[in-house]
Amino acid sequence: MTSSGPSQRQLRVGELIRRTLSEILAQGDLHDPDLEGVSITVGEVRASPDLKKATAFVLPLGGGNREGILAALRRNKPEIRHLLAREMTLKHVPDLRFEIDETFDRMDATRRLFSDEKVRRDLEASEDPEE
């Protein structure tokens, strides 16, 4: 049986890492001036099928300095993994990867698309029962 999506175990581990990582970032336990006083949202963490890798999708509050925040998180990966290991009950903490969470950008683009006059006209026309 092949599954197209992540397993329940992957989802549980991803969510556990997301919550714990969010707490670590909110508490300001990392000793990096680039991360001090910066609120970072952890939107999702995706664990690989073997649970050896996890990708955290992050976004600084307001969306500013994305690349700087990403670089700082990547620089501090060993310390972040150590803090995660201390807080979590996993046997092994996955290797972390950090990526910018593009979800909000995609939602904004979709909203702009649906607010476009031509698109609204097309949608209204497709809902017209006379066609």
Automatic annotation (TrEMBL):
What's a GO cellular component annotated to this UniProt protein? Answer: cytosol
HAMAP family under this entry? RbfA
Q: From which organism does this entry originate?
A: Rubellimicrobium mesophilum DSM 19309
Q: Which family, according to the similarity comment? A: Belongs to the RbfA family.
Quaternary structure per UniProt? Monomer. Binds 30S ribosomal subunits, but not 50S ribosomal subunits or 70S ribosomes.
| Record-given protein name | Ribosome-binding factor A
- MF-aspect GO terms: ribosomal small subunit binding
Cross-referenced Gene3D superfamilies: 3.30.300.20
Provide the protein's localization.
Answer: Cytoplasm
- PROSITE patterns listed in its UniProt record: RBFA
Sorted alphabetically, the keyword list is: Cytoplasm, Ribosome biogenesis
Please provide the Gene Ontology terms (biological process) for this protein.
Answer: maturation of SSU-rRNA
**Primary location class:** cytoplasm
Q: What does this protein do?
A: One of several proteins that assist in the late maturation steps of the functional core of the 30S ribosomal subunit. Associates with free 30S ribosomal subunits (but not with 30S subunits that are part of 70S ribosomes or polysomes). Required for efficient processing of 16S rRNA. May interact with the 5'-terminal helix region of 16S rRNA.
